[in-house]
Amino acid sequence: MKKLTVLLILVFSTFFLFSQPTFANSSNQLIIINKASNQLAYYNNGKIVKTFKVATGRQSGYTPEGTFKIVNKIKNRPYYKANIAGGATNNPLGDRWLGLNARGTNGTTYAIHGNNNANSIGTYASAGCVRMHNDEIRWLFDQVPVNTTVIITNTSKTFDSIAASHGYNVGSKLNNVTTSVKSPQPTNTSVKFTATTSAGKDPLFKYSVYDGKKWTTIQNYSTSKSVNWKPTKAGSYKIKAQVKSRNSKKAFDDEKVFNYTVFSPASVKNVATSVSSPQPTNKNISISATSNSSQNNEYKFSIYDGEKWKTIQGYSSNAKVNWKPTKEGSYKIKVQARHKLSKKKFDSEKTMKYTVYAPAKVTSFKTNLASPSPSDATVQLTAQSNNNKNNLFKFLVHDGSKWKTVQDFSSNSTFNWKQMNEGSYKLKVQVKHKSSTKSFDHEKELNYVIFKKATIDSIQTNKVSPQFTKTNIVISTPSNNKDHLYRFRIHNGTEWKTVQDFSNKSTYDWKPEYGGQYILKIEVKHKFSKEKFDASQELKYIINSPVTLTDIAPANLVHQPGMMLTVSATATGGSELMYKFEILDGSTWRTLQDYSSSNSVVWETPKEEGDYTIRVLVKSKNSPDFEATLEQTYTIKEIDE
């Protein structure tokens, strides 16, 4: 009897291990564990709901492979081997247990369970069970009932391929839906939609279009994975592709919905200009266009000048552009329009002709002399125009109060102007085509300044020449003018030296260091003058060094009475020195020689013995008084031979 029981168990176990599952439970659930990637997939109603990382056996044979059932569900199972209570944080089984009938067991040996070592998840770490994170096994525990099929395998196949190979009815799954031309497209464009699947058996395809109001089926379920659609109306559409396996009882297994935009191509209805042809050059001409759907269209404006097309406005929503032709000629105006979603160069275009002529225009107006100019200069006014041979020129001058015509309209494009009065002027040239009916077609003005050259009447000094060194001498000119610039130069007998460069300061303080004959010069020019200077004045000036008497000769102080004695003086400094000799006669000074250029005098010594004092006075020739004096006392007495 025992042998029969054992045989029945083995037969039953073999049936369990090798028979294909029926997936008969009402929830149509399936769990697949792939040891190759250590992942668990949970299926419900033909689709993967979630995938999880798991830990499997430390060696390849520890975790059994095959098709099994969940035969029990246990919360907080104790870990009997180490006597750890169920639900304890150190319980290696976690707090949820999904027991499997693997290898003839009854769900208490092999299981999908939680763990107390989260770092082991995703590795090969267990003795045979399948470990999950505790929060994930709790979720899975609540989803699956007892008798749910579990497939454990080691393969490179996808989960869907594994499920299908074990007889699980995997729902068809859309991989991608492509379009032959990308959205957006214009109306009446043929668009082909093509779907591909990544799962499912014998897929059928259905296509529907939503126009903003209702869904319309453009292909019902069919084995054709493609459909052609040619929209005739602009709008924002939704395209829906649905797929299901042939044996599926669902309305669809999977679907994808995407947006597709269809627009109406632009159509140019009219092109207009603000002023009719012909018009002169440099005239602002507004070109406008109207189209079928102006709020969605873009416009491009181009001009053909007889040689090439030029874009004056690239595509924009602005249906109007300003054109200012600068060259005469026969033009073509072209407007191209396209819907803002269009990928074409243009959807529609219109062209019109336009004539432009050239009125007279001043291209340059200049003078031969740059402003400002001195009042004695002749200024030539010269004008150039776009077409001198057909244009007439008129020259006018404004003196600050009114305009005066200096040359009326003529073919002469130059005029010589000479203005003696200084001031700020305006010069104007007006030009018109010889056939023009306007008072003038174009004009240009120039500002011009006329100044009078600076003059200088004289040089003044606060001290008359001569003066001594170190004397502060103020050099100035009475002809002071706020518009004039003054430069002060001094010649020291050898070279000129600028002591104050051009500035509006008309005085200079000079303190000469050395004596000599100097030339003082003031150069003056108007602040607008381009000359080195307009005028100058010079003044000779003498600077004397202080006169110093250094010696009286003879040096011998004792002399015979009644002899002719020559007394001479040695002096330095001054200018053209004059000498005066005096002798003290009792209490009175008596002149031996009045001021002269001679520095010596012959003195007949007195016959009466005694001490006599001779005084020398020295001054420069133009000095009013002596500048230095020196005395010498001589003794007159008989000297024994």
Automatic annotation (TrEMBL):
Pathway: Cell wall biogenesis; peptidoglycan biosynthesis; Glycan biosynthesis. PANTHER family: L,D-TRANSPEPTIDASE (PTHR30582), L,D-TRANSPEPTIDASE YQJB-RELATED (PTHR30582:SF4). Coiled coil: none annotated. InterPro entries: LD-transpeptidase, LD_TPept_cat_dom, Transpep_catalytic_dom, Y_Y_Y. GO terms for molecular function: peptidoglycan L,D-transpeptidase activity; transferase activity. Residues 1-24 form the signal peptide. The keyword Metal-binding does not apply. GO terms for cellular component: extracellular region. The active site is at H113, C129. This is L,D-TPase catalytic domain-containing protein. It comes from the Bacteria. Transmembrane segments: none annotated. It comes from Halalkalibacter akibai (strain ATCC 43226 / DSM 21942 / CIP 109018 / JCM 9157 / 1139).
